[in-house]
């Protein structure tokens, strides 16, 4: 369970797949490489809002049937590492994704404390 209170901004990151910023699929038929690219895409989106994975409170992971969640977890640990407050995670096995070459898609919700101006607003 995660509870958020106070003056905070919620960031919703829609489903990220293993397509890089140049529009290329990274890691065809390779869950580990695809997971690392997905996490990189999420980190980029978080950074645009001055947030990090430490601010993520929820991950929904959509993984194609036949993929081993342990491989995805290994890639997460190598890319992100241990988090002080790990997010809630839901893993859903699916028959396929919008891009049939993708093995994994992740959406995220992050919360960051809003900073008021110098007057404290």
TrEMBL record:
The organism's place on the tree of life at top rank: Bacteria
SUPFAM superfamilies: YjgF-like (SSF55298)
Gene Ontology MF, one: deaminase activity
Gene3D superfamilies, per the entry: RutC-like (3.30.1330.40)
Any one Gene Ontology cellular component term annotated for this protein: cytosol
UniProt xrefs under CDD domains: YjgF_YER057c_UK114_family
Family: Belongs to the RutC family.
Protein name (Swiss-Prot/TrEMBL): Endoribonuclease L-PSP
Protein source organism: Acetivibrio straminisolvens JCM 21531
């Amino acid at each position: 369970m995660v509870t958020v209170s106070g003056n905070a901004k919620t960031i919703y990151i829609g489903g990220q797949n293993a397509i890089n910023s140049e529009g290329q699929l990274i890691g065809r038929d390779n869950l580990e490489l695809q997971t690392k690219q997905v996490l990189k895409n999420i980190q980029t989106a978080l950074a645009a809002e001055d947030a990090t994975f430490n601010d993520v409170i929820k991950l929904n992971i959509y993984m194609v049937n036949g993929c081993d969640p342990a491989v995805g977890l290994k890639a997460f640990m190598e890319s992100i590492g241990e988090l002080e407050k790990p997010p809630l995670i839901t893993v859903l096995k699916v028959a396929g994704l919008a891009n049939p070459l993708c093995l994994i898609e992740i959406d995220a919700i992050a919360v960051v404390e809003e900073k008021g101006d110098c007057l404290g607003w």
